[in-house]
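ok trying again, last paste got cut off:
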Amino acid sequence: MFNVIIATHGNLATEFEKVLKSFFGKIDHLKAINLGDQGINAFSQKIDQVIAPCLNEPTIIFCDIAGGTPFNELAKRSINWHKQVALFGGVNLPVLVETLNMRMQGKNIYEVIGKITAMSALIRFNMKNAKKAEDE
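nice, full thing came through this time. structure:
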């Protein structure tokens, strides 16, 4: 099993965690880190506390914005990982759900990384193919 860490600005990571728990119930090896008003030093300390137990385990890290503070702080620490680690920016709920579904199915971290990397972040609704209520 691999760890999943969500790190975001504000309380978004905790909110993602709440929604995921409403879907899956108790979720082991899932951590949320929020960058709130506490400042960068406190946030950095929180990151160090959360990742310390994960350094010898495969881990997928999701951040809200590639190049944002949570992403950059975790990228700096990624060289300390002793096992497979993958860092993603642009987290969204479908990717988190797919990650946890695949993990529950016993898929390894490499299979999950391949699948979620190929997922499109957005699904565009094609207005041309929409039916009007009177068409039905």
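cool. DSSP finds five helices and four strands in the chain. Helices lie at 12-24, 40-51, 69-77, 93-104, 109-118.
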